[in-house]
Specification:
Strand order of the largest sheet: 6-5-4-7-8-9
Structural class: alpha/beta
CATH class of the largest domain: Alpha Beta
Strand content: 5-15%
Distance between the termini: 25 Å
Oligomer: single chain
Number of helices: 13
Number of strands: 9
CATH superfamily of the largest domain: Glycogen Phosphorylase B
Length: 273
C-alpha cells in the first residue's frame, strides 16, 4: 500500500487508520521502517482507534500532531437475533453460568494463560474460534486435566450471539500489544457483560475500564486472571452492575454511527482546507 501510494503520486488529502504497531516481525521492521516513516509522514491525518494506543505507541508519538482518535464502532442491529430454541440448546449444553472467549486463536490472545488460570477451578469456560495454535491449546488442556474448558471451534454468527447473550462474563486474556483493540471484547460490552482483560496499553483497556465495566489484570499472570474470574463468579450482583455499565459505555462511545460520523467530519475538515 505504501509503495502504491507513492507510485500514484496522489495530490489529494490522505487519511490512514493506524491499527497496530509491528510487534513480532522485528527483523522485517528494520527493512520496512524507512518506507513506513515516509508513508506516515506524508499523511494528512492518521487515525488511531483509542487514546490508550496513541499514548503508548512509539510510532504514533512521532506524528501526534496529525493523529485523530476514532474508536471502532459496532452496529448491534446488524447482529442476528438468536431463536429461542438455539438459546435453549446452548443453555442445556453449557449450563446456566459460564465465561466466554470469542476470537481467532492466535499466539497473542493469551489463551495458554487462560488455561493455566482454569486449573483448579470448576466453572465452565467456553472458547469460540479457530486458529493456528488451536491443536496446541487443546493438548495443553488435556495435559492440565481440564474438564471445564469447552473448545467449540468456529461457529455461525447466530450461535456466537446466542453465547454472548447467555454467558456470565467475557474473558479476554490477550497479553501482547498485537491485540490493538479487541472487537470481541467490545461485543461483550455491547451485550452487557462484565469483562476481564489485561493491561497491555492498547484499546482493550479503553473498552474495559477496571472496576467499572469489569476487571483488568496484569498480562501473562494466570493467578491474577484466576482470581478475577473467581471474584466475578462469587459476586453476581457486582458482575451484573459492571455489565450494565459496559453496555452504557458501548452506547456512549462505540456505536457504528458514531464512528461513521467522526470519519465524515474528518473528511470534511480535510476537504475544506
Amino acid at each position: 500500500m505504501d509503495v502504491v501510494h507513492f507510485a500514484m503520486r496522489i495530490k489529494k488529502p490522505t487519511v490512514v487508520t493506524y491499527h497496530s504497531d509491528i510487534i513480532r516481525q522485528k527483523k522485517l521492521l528494520r527493512l520496512y521502517r524507512p518506507l513506513m516513516c515516509k508513508f506516515l509522514g506524508s499523511m494528512d491525518r492518521i487515525v488511531a482507534t483509542s487514546q490508550n494506543y496513541l499514548a503508548t505507541s512509539d510510532v504514533l508519538e512521532k506524528y501526534s500532531d496529525k493523529v485523530s482518535v476514532i474508536p471502532i464502532g459496532l452496529d448491534k442491529s446488524a447482529y442476528p437475533q438468536p431463536q429461542p430454541e438455539l438459546l435453549r440448546f446452548w443453555r442445556e449444553k453449557l449450563g446456566p453460568k459460564f465465561f466466554l472467549f470469542v476470537g481467532v486463536i492466535r499466539y497473542y490472545k493469551g489463551l495458554h494463560i487462560l488455561l493455566e488460570a482454569a486449573k483448579g477451578t470448576d466453572y465452565p469456560i467456553v472458547i469460540v474460534g479457530a486458529g493456528p495454535i488451536e491443536a496446541e491449546l487443546k493438548a495443553q488442556a488435556i495435559q492440565l486435566g481440564l474438564r471445564n474448558v469447552h473448545f467449540l471451534g468456529h461457529l455461525p454468527d447466530e450461535d456466537k450471539v446466542a453465547l454472548l447473550t447467555l454467558c456470565y462474563g467475557v474473558v479476554f486474556p490477550s497479553h501482547l500489544r498485537s491485540e490493538a483493540f479487541g472487537i470481541s471484547l467490545l461485543e461483550g460490552a455491547m451485550y452487557g457483560k462484565p469483562m476481564i482483560s489485561s493491561e497491555i496499553g492498547t484499546g482493550t483497556t479503553y473498552i474495559n475500564i477496571g472496576d467499572e465495566t469489569g476487571l483488568v489484570v496484569p498480562p501473562s499472570d494466570p493467578t491474577a486472571l484466576r482470581n478475577a474470574m473467581q471474584y466475578l463468579w462469587n459476586h453476581p450482583g457486582e458482575a451484573a452492575a459492571m455489565g450494565m455499565r459496559a453496555e452504557e459505555r458501548y452506547w456512549r462511545y462505540f456505536t457504528a454511527d458514531q464512528m461513521v460520523d467522526a470519519y465524515v467530519d474528518l473528511y470534511r475538515e480535510l476537504a475544506d482546507k
